[in-house]
Design a protein that fits this description.
Blueprint (H helix, E strand, L loop, with lengths): L1 E2 L10 H9 L12 H14 L5 E5 L2 H12 L4 E6 L3 H4 L4 H4 L4 E4 L8 H12 L9 E8 L10 H13 L4 E4 L3 H5 L8 H7 L2 E5 L9 E5 L2 H4 L2 H7 L8 H10 L4 H22 L12 E2 L2 E3 H8 L2 E2 L1 E5 L4 E7 L6 H12 L2
Parallel strand pairs: 1-11, 3-4, 3-5, 5-6, 6-7
Antiparallel strand pairs: 2-8, 7-8, 9-13, 10-13, 12-13
Helix pairs in contact: 1-12, 2-12, 6-7, 13-15
Length: 344
Amino acid sequence: MIQFQCDYNEGAHPAIMKRLMETNMEQTVGYGMDPYCEQAREAIKKACEAPNANVHFLVGGTQTNTTVIQAALKAYQGVICAHTGHINVHETGAIENTGHKVLALPGKDGKITAEQVEKAIKDHFEDGDAEHIVQPGMVYISFPTEIGTIYTKQELTDLSSVCHKYEMPLFVDGARLGYGLTSPSCDITLPELCKLADVFYIGGTKVGAMFGEAVVINCPKLNKDFRYHIKQRGGMLAKGRLLGVQFLTLFTDNLYMQISEHANKMAMKIREAFSAKGCEFLVDSPTNQQFPILSNEMMQKLSKKYLYSPWQKVDENYTAVRFCTSWATKEENVDALIEDIKAL
């Protein structure tokens, strides 16, 4: 079977495996205080053009979301996000388990607007019973979104402005950040995103690393004691240099962006093939996740050779599915899929 169901099927980029083997028997201090983590922090800050930012390494996405949100919120606060947001639909109540409510707003194409956020905040504080209701304390978005769409620079600027107006942090989940930034439809750079977000993370697990996420914090208040939160949430890896080596490799010679761009190119080839076949799409995604709407017959035929994810039932005869490419997707597998799509 050829797998297109997610973007973390493979292990790690060969350059990372090579560096891990080359450094395997070196002795270093633990918990992310080693020279490789420090070099990786500097490389990331340079790429972000943010010399005063703070960079922390964690192991996985859900752990990172939970740690950042729990660290940012007071006990009576919740986090605003789109109803399709990862923390609302795919993290098994991890945020709620910390005692914080996810305040979901109806999203359009996976996104929420600055106007929606401001209305939600105003509605709360203008309510006569405000102190009886969970207070909005943070805004969470993902880039790309859960369904592959991306925010424009103007949309991010507007969200950032509202957050700063009400003195609450804007948190950008970047589990697939590379795929968003290298999309042909993206009009924002990594340094620009860094300036607009109070905290965001650079996903490694889904973009070339064996595991790991790099949290970039621009808010000194949030950074204070952040390592205590990492430790308490089980995210402080004893052999922290394994994260440092991986991110240092990814941010050497622009490797992170190069491999992200490959995934998008493969996804666009798949998109064009389904489009040429007359398929409609659940959403117009310009990144590595594509959501064609297939008939039951088409699904049955493709399922004999390919793994993909059923996403949303459209009616009795049609279902939106997800085909997901990655940094490691082989072009020959994409070409095989395209030929089979043509034959449907």
